[in-house]
Each structure stands twice: as C-alpha cells, then as structure tokens.
Design goal:
- The chain has a single domain (5-156, 192-237, 334-349, 369-524), classed as Creatine Kinase, Chain A, domain 2 (2-Layer Sandwich).
- The protein is 45% helix and 10% strand.
- The chain has helices at 5-13, 16-21, 79-95, 126-142, 160-169, 176-193, 195-202, 260-270, 319-326, 348-363, 371-387, 404-426, 430-443, 449-460, 464-481, 489-508, 514-524, and strands at residues 26-36, 60-62, 68-72, 101-102, 152-157, 207-209, 223-225, 229-231, 307-310, 330-336, 394-397, 400-403.
- Strands 1, 2, 3, 4, 5, 9 and 10 form a seven-stranded antiparallel sheet that branches. A three-stranded antiparallel sheet has the order 6-8-7, covered by helices on one side. Strands 11-12 form a two-stranded antiparallel ribbon.
- Helix 6 crosses helix 10 (348-363), helix 10 (348-363) crosses helix 13 and helix 12 packs antiparallel against helix 13 (430-443).
- This is Glutamate--cysteine ligase.
C-alpha cells in the first residue's frame, strides 16, 4: 500500500516531545439547552434567578432566547474533568428550575407561537441592553424560531510545546505566532472540506416538531410520524441546513480562510456594509430600535460558520480586533448537535474523536481553498444533512464523485494513525478504540446518532417529542440524584451571588447613555 503524505509526515513527528505535548491540549465546551415545562412545551419563565445573573456569570448564562440556557466550562486539559464540570453545572441549574427540565435535542420542542420565545434579558446596563437589542435584531431578521435551536460548541487549543516541536520538524523559521495562526487556518480549511463527516456521525436532528415551520412550506422531502413529527428518512442534522441559523447575504461576502488578513478583512466588510434586506428595520438611532444597525452583520458574532478562529478579547475589543492584535489562540467548532444519548449533550467518545479529527485536519496538507471549493464543501454537507444515511449518496471529492463509504474509509485510515499518537501520549488505547468503533459506522449508517434516533422513532410509532420528553425526565432525575463531581454546591451558590454584585458594578460604571454607548462602540469597531 502506498504511503500517504500524512503517514510519512507522522514518522517525522512521532518524537517524544510532540507526542507528550498532546496531553496538554486544552478544551472548553459551551452546551446550549432549552428549558421546557413538564408538558414538553417551551418554558416561559425568566432565567432561573437562583443560578446567578446571565450577564456576569462565567459558566451559566443564556444564549439567544430567555429559555435557552448556555453552560460554559472553564478551560481544561482533562476531557473527563470538562464533562464533570458540565454535569455539575446542569445539576445545579436543574435544582433551581422547579419542575422544568432541559430539552435533550437540538431542534426545539413544541412551540405554539413565536411570541412564546422571549428574547434573552441581561439587565439595564449598556452592554446588557446591547445584548438584548442584538437578539431583537436577530428576531426581526430571521424569526424567533431560530433562537430556540440548541447546539454544542467545542473549543480546542494546542500547547506551545506542540507548536515548537511541529515548527522544528518542518524547519520553519517564521515568528511562532504567525506559524500557529497559519496552521490553525489550515486546520479550518481541512475541517470545512470534511465537515460532512461530523454531520454524518454526530448529526442528531433528523426530525423536528412541525410547529417549528409555523405553517410555512418546506422543500425538504419530509415524512410524517405520529401527531406532528416531520423527519427525513436518511437525514442527519437539520440544524446545520437551511432550516437553521443562516444569513442569505453572508455568502455574498465571500469570507475566506487562506490568511488571517483575508479572514479579518472579510468579516470587517460585513459589519460595515449596509444591507438592502434590513434597511427598513429601525436601528439604535430610532426611538424604539429593532436591531443594532442596518449592516449585513450587526456585529461579528452574527456571522454563521461551523468553525471559527478565536482569541480571547480584551475589554472593548471586537473578535477581529483581538485576532489582528495577537493572532489565533484557539478554534471553536460550532457544528455539533446536542447529543441526546449523553446527559451532558456531548460524550467522552465524541471529545476523543474530535481531538483526533482536528489534529488530523491540522497535520495533513492544507492547500488554499477557493470560494468555489468552499461552495462545493457546503454542497457536500447539505447532501449529508438530507440523505447522509442513504448509501447511494455521492459527494464531490476533487473532480470525482465518491460515496460516503469510500471517502469515509479513506479518512478513518489516516485517523487511526493519529489515534496511535494519542494512545502513546496517554498510555492507553482509548483513542484507537474510539476511532475503530466509529469507523464501523461508515458501513452501518443505522449506528450513527441520527440512525439510532430514526430507528427508535419508527419502532415506537409515536412522536419525536415523546421520545425527547422521556429522555429529559430521565436525565433530570439522574442529575438530581448524582453527587457533585467537580464543584460543590456552596461554591456555585457563591458564584451565583457574586454575579449579581458584578452586574450591579457593570451598570454603575456606565458613563454614557445607551445611544451614545452604541455610537462609540460602532465607531471603534
């Protein structure tokens, strides 16, 4: 068998320094979860006061809607510790939610009317009001239903020892941060090329409640189950498709990932370019504003991408200003559905796979990616979203049409070699075991998350909502019975109390009116 470029590269990289550095990979997880009533309908109550203030609590906040909680773990080099933190945060929140539960799916529960989706509230400080007005803009641009969709974000960074060993092996003499940024951009390009695999394996939104469409027609070939469940027989991740959070104008911006300068310039164009679509929606200059501004993107966070380069921003910095100042610090993966088979929404097996897959994306050759190639990769993703478990589905790989099994087996052959490096670093076979297990899903689509969900749905003959409500009830009971693993209740009580004091301080420090604050913000952006 011919040795691949990656295999020959790995022979040079398999030094004790680089291998041992893999234990220093840092991760953080942001898990979104919709609050629901015992009936399975969306909760209409405010953010649970007992868990703290959503503006200033570092670990428990809200996302787009008041009922969409977000749990944020601290950065950690231990995947097991990260999951323990996530489990504790959910346990603590559930204990402060009365009889409400956490919806275990990405696509939302039954929602009778979009007015039931209340925008997230962050208090009366200027920054708090800006966050809510931003969401008001999202509502008026895309509709409120989008704001009830949940996902899991996976953040990863490689340690300096890894970068130094990699740079030495490649005999690269550039400034270290430039080397790191360029390698992360290569990771992003390769991830986008093969993102379809994440949707195939871990897509967990092949079905939705018909209330999500609010009576609108869809071009997707849905089949109906039970009272109101719509599903795609071979679908994987409706959340990542056109039903999810998309901006039709964003594609015209042609944001590219071949250099940091190019990426930053693309995003900055978007936040400065007026939009004909949103011109008639009142912005912050109006007496009753309905959006922050009339640009294609109100702020950079509105840009939808399944993967983002990131750097922790300083006070008053925008994301692209932080990147321009210091280069890429870590990568945020935004393509994961909530895993309904895990009480934390993501499993240890997924984390190990992502470690391997992202390292593979980083180490393999990463040629520049044209806009046309980006579109092809998106078309591949959309094919998998709609018909990924149909073995006859074809994807475009270069100039060829290949099956998911053909391309998937090629990828897993190389992932197995990366997994062996991780096993050597950790002194066990956990990573190889994970990769070998998931490799079997390529030939057996029913084993994927979406396959398991559809099989269960059809076997039970009911609605997906009944399936989800049973899971939500079970997870709540299990969380409340389980002891805290990382935090203690007193510490979380203290964090909650401190967050209210911190929010008061933020509001007290406001020196400008809200309108003047926004004017100053956008002049500096």
């Amino acid at each position: 068998m011919k040795q691949t470029n990656l295999a020959s590269k790995l022979e040079k990289l398999a030094t004790s320094t680089l291998v041992s550095s893999l234990t220093g990979i840092q991760r953080g997880i942001e898990r979104e979860a919709l609050r629901i009533q015992p009936s399975g309908k969306i909760a209409k109550t405010p953010h649970p006061e007992g868990v703290g203030h959503p503006l200033t609590h570092s670990s428990i906040t809200t996302d787009f809607s008041e009922s969409l909680l977000e749990f944020i773990t601290p950065v950690s080099t231990s995947a097991e510790q990260t999951l323990s933190q996530l489990r504790d945060l959910q346990k603590y929140t559930l204990a402060n939610m009365g009889d409400e539960m956490l919806w275990p799916m990405s696509m939302p529960c039954f929602i009778e009317d979009q007015q039931d989706i209340v925008l997230a509230q962050f208090g009366n400080s200027n920054i708090g009001k800006m966050k809510t007005l931003y969401r008001e803009g999202l509502k008026n641009r895309y509709g409120s239903m989008m704001q009830a969709i949940a996902g899991v974000h996976f953040n990863i960074s490689f340690p300096e020892s890894f970068w130094l060993a990699l740079q030495e092996s490649e005999q690269d003499n550039s400034e270290l941060q430039n080397f790191i940024s360029n390698k992360y951009l290569g990771l992003i390009r390769n991830f986008k090329r093969e993102l379809w695999l994440i949707s195939y394996l871990f897509g967990a939104s092949p079905a939705l409640c018909s209330s999500f469409l609010q009576g609108k027609e869809s071009n997707l070939p849905f089949e109906k189950q039970g009272k109101g469940t719509l599903y795609l027989p071979h679908g994987t991740a409706l959340r990542l498709g056109d039903l999810g959070y998309t901006n039709s104008e964003q594609s015209s911006l042609k944001v590219m990932y071949n250099s940091l300068t190019e990426y930053v310039a693309g995003l900055q164009r978007a936040i400065r370019c007026r939009s004909d679509l949103y011109e008639n929606i009142d912005d912050f200059h109006a007496e009753t504003p309905k959006q922050l501004n009339k640009n294609i993107l109100q702020i950079e966070n509105e840009f939808y991408s399944p993967i983002r380069p990131k750097r922790n921003a300083k006070k008053h910095e925008t994301p692209t200003q932080a990147l321009s100042r210091g280069g890429i610090e870590y990568i945020e993966i935004r393509a994961l559905d909530v895993n309904p088979f895990s009480d934390t929404g993501i499993s240890i097996e997924q984390i190990r796979f992502l470690d391997v897959f992202l390292t593979y994306c980083l180490l393999k050759d990463a040629p520049e990616m044209s806009w046309e190639e980006q579109q092809i990769s998106d078309q591949n993703l959309q094919s998998v979203i709609s018909t990924g478990r149909d073995t006859s589905t074809l994807l475009k790989q270069g100039e060829e049409q290949v099956t998911i099994a053909q391309w998937g087996n090629e990828i897993f052959t190389e992932l197995k070699e990366i997994a062996e490096l991780f096993d050597a670093a950790h002194g066990n076979s956990d990573y190889s075991d994970t990769v070998h297990h998931l490799a079997t899903w390529i030939e057996n689509p029913d084993n994927t998350f979406s396959g398991q969900l559809i099989s269960s749905l059809l076997a039970n003959g009911g609605d997906a909502s009944e399936q989800a409500l049973d899971i939500a009830t079970r997870y709540k009971n299990e969380h409340l019975k389980t002891d805290f693993q990382y935090y203690c209740e007193a510490d979380l009580d203290k964090q909650a109390s401190q967050s209210f004091e911190d929010e008061k301080a933020v509001a007290a420090n406001d020196a400008l009116s809200f309108k003047a604050f926004l004017k100053d913000y956008f002049e500096k952006a």
